[in-house]
Amino acid sequence: MTAPRPTVAFFGSPAFALPVLDAVRAAFEVVLVVAQPDKPVGRGLKLTPPPVAAHAAALGLPLAQPRKLRGNVAFEATLRDCGADVAVTCAYGKILPASLLAVPEYGFLNTHTSLLPAYRGAAPIQWALIGGETVTGTTIMQTDPGMDTGPILLQEELPIDPAWTSVELADALGVQAARLIVDALSRLDALTPTPQDDARATHAPMLVKEDGFVRWTDSAPQIVNRARGVAAWPQTTAFLNGARLKLGGLDAVDGAGTPGEVLHVDDAGLTVAARSGAVRVRTVQPEARRVQPAQVWAQGAGVTPGTRLDVWEPDPT
């Protein structure tokens, strides 16, 4: 190694990356932080830095926010001149070109929140829950120009609590990722890269709004798992006569009926039939209105047993 403890350039953008940055900063010298550019946020479209950029600025760390990476000679020079022995990426959000990966002596190490090669892509936490996984984990990998295709350096499992949504799972994985990346950086020369088995790869693309739409023709556990996965965004959406409803507090329960059919309305909430089993819904939020108990919403909307919520299914094309 070029130094007993490597100097680090840290690439990250969202709040998820903050504990990882803090753990790296506590153990090593961070000579550069790289985040995505500021973006308009909220109704006023106020230009706002991503959480990692704001945190780095508050700490007085050197900060760069390049708009593009490919062909960006000036930014490559910035990375080279900062003197980082190794770079760490955590939810940075951009594909890194080969020319940039070659700048630090030890390349780039990525913290990926799945057991690669499973769930390659932008949303591994969400798709693991949607897929009904009971175990996930964190992989520290050597970044290459592909999408999460580089060799594995460290990997550790994490059991998924059945009550966790994407919010709680992200918190737990953030703690795990922070610990593992510090371990990896502490013994760079001792780690043996293990190639991924591409034949076993699965994918976790960025979520779109439709991923939160309830598919009443799924089984009740599948509907609940999807709700867990989209809890942070885009959240769970159902429809009644074309009007959108945000649903909260979903549980799989016993029941049978036509998919989308309301089976019960009581103090426990709204029970709706799935393809197999049923789903109890505790809260409903109609468009442009506040969240309310499902029973209260049902009474006001005239929803009774036998009412059928719209059955939405994805376009097969």
UniProtKB/TrEMBL annotation:
<dbReference type="GO" id="GO:0005829">
    <property type="term" value="C:cytosol"/>
</dbReference>
<dbReference type="InterPro" id="IPR041711">
    <property type="entry name" value="Met-tRNA-FMT_N"/>
</dbReference>
<feature type="domain" description="Formyl transferase N-terminal">
    <location>
        <begin position="9"/>
        <end position="185"/>
    </location>
</feature>
<dbReference type="Pfam" id="PF00551">
    <property type="entry name" value="Formyl_trans_N"/>
</dbReference>
<dbReference type="InterPro" id="IPR044135">
    <property type="entry name" value="Met-tRNA-FMT_C"/>
</dbReference>
<comment type="function">
    <text>Attaches a formyl group to the free amino group of methionyl-tRNA(fMet). The formyl group appears to play a dual role in the initiator identity of N-formylmethionyl-tRNA by promoting its recognition by IF2 and preventing the misappropriation of this tRNA by the elongation apparatus.</text>
</comment>
<dbReference type="GO" id="GO:0004479">
    <property type="term" value="F:methionyl-tRNA formyltransferase activity"/>
</dbReference>
<dbReference type="InterPro" id="IPR011034">
    <property type="entry name" value="Formyl_transferase-like_C_sf"/>
</dbReference>
<feature type="domain" description="Formyl transferase C-terminal">
    <location>
        <begin position="207"/>
        <end position="301"/>
    </location>
</feature>
<keyword id="KW-0648">Protein biosynthesis</keyword>
<dbReference type="InterPro" id="IPR002376">
    <property type="entry name" value="Formyl_transf_N"/>
</dbReference>
<dbReference type="Pfam" id="PF02911">
    <property type="entry name" value="Formyl_trans_C"/>
</dbReference>
<comment type="similarity">
    <text>Belongs to the Fmt family.</text>
</comment>
<dbReference type="InterPro" id="IPR005794">
    <property type="entry name" value="Fmt"/>
</dbReference>
<dbReference type="InterPro" id="IPR036477">
    <property type="entry name" value="Formyl_transf_N_sf"/>
</dbReference>
<dbReference type="InterPro" id="IPR005793">
    <property type="entry name" value="Formyl_trans_C"/>
</dbReference>
<feature type="binding site">
    <location>
        <begin position="114"/>
        <end position="117"/>
    </location>
    <ligand>
        <name>(6S)-5,6,7,8-tetrahydrofolate</name>
    </ligand>
</feature>
<keyword id="KW-0808">Transferase</keyword>
<protein>
    <recommendedName>
        <fullName>Methionyl-tRNA formyltransferase</fullName>
        <ecNumber>2.1.2.9</ecNumber>
    </recommendedName>
</protein>
